[in-house]
Write a structure and sequence with these properties.
16% strand; flat; two-stranded antiparallel sheet; alpha+beta; 2 helices
């Protein structure tokens, strides 16, 4: 089973490297007066990390609301 996990990790790493190589074009992202130019792959990674961060906070908020609503006074 260990070799299956190692093979899956190697395949995932290869896919990530291929994505990085194939998406080296630069894009410019603007918000209000600021603008940043970066490769597409970096932008996708940052959006993914931001989604994980905010999704975790949202899940914690909903859990606290449910816990508060079901708690007896």
């Amino acid at each position: 089973m260990r070799y299956v996990y190692m093979a899956l990790i190697a395949a995932f790493a290869a896919i990530v490297i291929l994505f990085k190589i194939q998406n080296i074009e630069s894009v410019t992202v603007s918000l209000f007066a600021a603008s940043v130019t970066m490769p597409v792959s970096v932008l996708v990674l940052l959006i993914y990390l931001l989604g994980m961060f905010t999704g975790g906070f949202l899940l914690a908020l909903v859990r606290s609301w449910v816990h508060g609503a079901t708690r007896r006074s």
